[in-house]
Amino acid sequence: MDRADPIMSVKRPWRDALVSIYCQRPYSLFEYFPTMLELFGKRDRRPTHCDGYSRRNFLKVGGMAAGGLSLGQLLGMEARAGTGSSHKAVINIYLPGGPSHLDFFDLKPDAPTEIRGEFRPISTNVPGIQICELFPRLAKMADKFAIIRSLADSDGAHDCYQCMTGHKRRDVAPAGGWPAWGSWVSEVQGSKPGIPANVSLMYPTGNRTWGEAGNGGFIGNSHAPMGLVDKDPNARAKSMTLQGMSLDRIMDREALRSSIDKIKSEIDTTGQMEGLDTYNQQALEILADGNLAAALDLSKEHPKVVERYGINNPQYQRDGAPKMIRNFLVALRLVEAGARVVSLNYSRWDWHGGDGLNFPRSREEMPLLDQGLSALITDIHERGLQDDVSIVMWGEFGRTPKINKMNSRDHWPKANFAFLAGGGMDLGQVIGATDKHGNEPSERPIKFQEVFATLYHNLGIDLSSATVEDASGRPHFLVDPGIKPIRELVG
User: Which residues pair with 362 in a beta bridge?
Assistant: First the structure.
């Protein structure tokens, strides 16, 4: 057996599946997604297979999803054989602008007209839990999610910083700044072969701070979120480091191809390929042949699965993000491919002031979110990932209980919500409560960092021991002293 050949290192029947997929033609994703990858090795002068690429230069591990076998499943197979480990991941959904806690999941039907608004609550499949009537799909699966109604420490800043770092802007930070929370995960747990741990589907927005997934902070840019989308389809992706390979412009396909070929050539000529472990061999092959691109290609999914998420609307809404609802499925495919943290922004939820659109826009937006989010929760259960993939959805703050003169709600940091699913958590419950008018928490106030502590716990990180050193050598814990996972969710 050729130990350098990843296909031959896989036992049957998995090898047969790989060989059948191996002969597919390369595909391009640039027409589908703004910053796709199309990575091929150089054509080989030695005997070739299919359409002219050697086995080593053409192995499409990422393409296994087309045959019903994802990279995550292959790694899972290795785990069951005792050679790998379970892969945990989090999808972080940010709703730019501050969605209304009162109109989403904390309705006050007995409050005065100027507070209760236009929507009525509906019962869910969990007795005692009610949510907005515009979320009928979610109402049928309330046993599969938890709602925090008492998120109490919103900064009040109109940006996503707190949803991406757990910190407030004014918090004293080490030199270099606080890292995005996915950067902590990337540093502590590392990356899977062929895809970075920390990935962003955050669209740049007119309001700059609604489209930033954060950066590596004091940890360094090598662990910063790898951005996969851009407002300008012709723009170049940001600099990144992937598996120790520095790729200045991932959309510069010629330079990327040359970089990968050079590394592979050096490994081949020095005889190191046989010395590489299987994961490193796979990493090189996946990088060269499109694992990341395959994860982003929804044509690999059954059309009925894609359809149940709803229809993408790529148009920008003023300073918000586009309604790319199928990115919820893209995020799931990315974590299946090995990403640990995927952050994304969806639409625009800032309706107040002179536009008076809080309730009309809610009627447009909430049913779409209901469809996409319920589809994502359905998929993690159908794929058996409900214990491994966590979902969090939130915004930077809530909305004023009292409706303003324009029939809208203004900014309100005193009360906010968080929506959680998956992760093996104890779901089907509401945590905390606000007072009778939704002004502020009256029971069980929760901090952003407690939510992050819960997500770190779901990823398998021991918060009592995991630390990262800054440039001065000072160790930092992932959350502030005294912060613990939410006991109602993880015991």
Answer: none
- One-letter amino acid at 111 equals A
Which residue, 227, 225, 245, 224, is CA-closest to 236? 227
Name 37's Cβ contacts closer than 8 Å, sequence gap at least 6.
29, 250, 253, 256, 290, 292, 293, 296
**Nearest-angstrom CA–CA distance, 290 and 140:** 38
Strand runs labelled E in 249-404: 341-345, 389-394, 398-399
Q: What is the DSSP letter of 417?
A: E
> What's domain 89-231+316-490's superfamily in CATH?
Alkaline Phosphatase, subunit A (3.40.720.10)
Q: What is the CA radius of gyration of the chain?
A: 23
Amino acid type, 35: T
* Residue type (1 letter), 277: D
* pLDDT computed for residue 165 by the predictor: 97
Q: What are phi and psi of 234, to 5 degrees?
A: -95, 0
Q: What are phi and psi of 437, to 5 degrees?
A: -110, 5
Spell out the residues 6+ positions from residue 334 whose beta carbon is closer than 8 angstroms to its own.
Answer: 195, 199, 201, 295, 296, 342
AA identity, residue 44: D
- How far CA 243 is from CA of 76, 223, 247, 260, 284, in Å, comes to 20, 10, 10, 12, 9
For 272, phi then psi, to 5°, come to -90, -10
| pLDDT at site 438 | 97
Cα–Cα dist 3/75, whole Å: 18
Given a contact cutoff of 8 angstroms between Cβ atoms, the answer to whether 377 and 419 are in contact is no
The DSSP output letter for 30 is: T
In whole angstroms, give the CA distance from residue 339 to residue 421: 18
- Cα 310 to Cα 323: distance, rounded to the nearest angstrom: 10
| Rounded Cα gap, residues 70 and 86, in angstroms | 14
> What's the pTM value of the predicted model, to 2 decimals?
0.76
Separation between Cα atoms, residue 263 and residue 260, nearest integer Å: 5
Instruction: Locate 172 and state its tokens.
Output: 């004293």
- Please provide the DSSP assignment of 112-126 as one string: -HHHH-S--EEE-SS
Sequential DSSP letters for 426-465: --SEEE-EE-TTSSSEEE--B-HHHHHHHHHHHTT--TTT
pLDDT, tens only, 121-177: 999 999 999 999 999 999 999 999 999 999 999 999 999 999 999 999 999 999 999
Give the bridge partners for 93, in sequence order: 344, 393
Write out pLDDT tens, residues 56-90: 332 222 222 223 333 344 444 444 444 334 589 99
Enumerate the domain spans of the chain.
14-84+247-286, 89-231+316-490
Q: Under 8 Å CB-to-CB from 267, ≥6 apart: which residues?
A: 273, 276, 284
pLDDT lower than 70: segments of the chain: 1-86, 193-194, 230-293, 354, 356
With vertex at residue 282, the alpha carbon angle to CA 276 and CA 283, rounded to the nearest 5 degrees, is 90
